[in-house]
Amino acid sequence: MDTLLLSRIQFGANISFHILFPTITIALGWMLLAFKLAWQRTGNEKWMEAYRFWVKIFALSFGMGVVSGITMSFQFGTNWPGFMEAVGNIAGPLLAYEVLTAFFLEAVFLGIMLFGASRVPVWMHTLATFLVAFGTTMSAFWILVLNSWMHTPAGFEMRDGVAHATDWIAIIFNPSMPYRLTHMLLASGLTVAFLIAGVSALRWLWGDRSEAVRATLRTGVFVGAALIPLQILAGDFHGLNTLEHQPAKVAAMEGNWDTRGNVPLLLFAVPDEAARENRFEVGIPNGASLILKHHAAGVVPGLNEFIGEDGSVMHPPVAPVFYSFRVMVGTGFAMLFLSWGAAILMTRRRSGVEGLPRPVLWAMVPMALSGWVATLAGWYTTEIGRQPWLVTGVLNTEQAVAAVPAPMVATTLIAYLAVYAALLIAYIGAILYLARKAAHGDRPETTTPRGQPMAAHVPGE
Amino acid sequence: MTYFGDPAIWLPLTFAALMGLSILIYVVLDGFDLGVGVLFPFAEPAEKDRMVASIGPFWDANETWLVLAIGILLVAFPAAHGQILTALYLPVAIMLIGLILRGVAFEFRAKAPPARKGLWNLSFYAGSMMTALSQGYMLGMYIMGLEQRPATWAFAALTALFLTVGYSFIGAAWLILKTEGALQRKAVGWAKGGIWGLILGLGAVSLASPLVSPRIFDKWFAMPEALFLAPLPIISAALVALLWIALRRLPTSDDSFAWFPFAISIALFALAFCGMAYSFYPYVVPEKLTIYEAASAPESLFIILIGTLFVLPMILGYTALSYRVFRGKATALSYE
Question: Complex ipTM above 0.90?
Answer without folding.
Answer: no
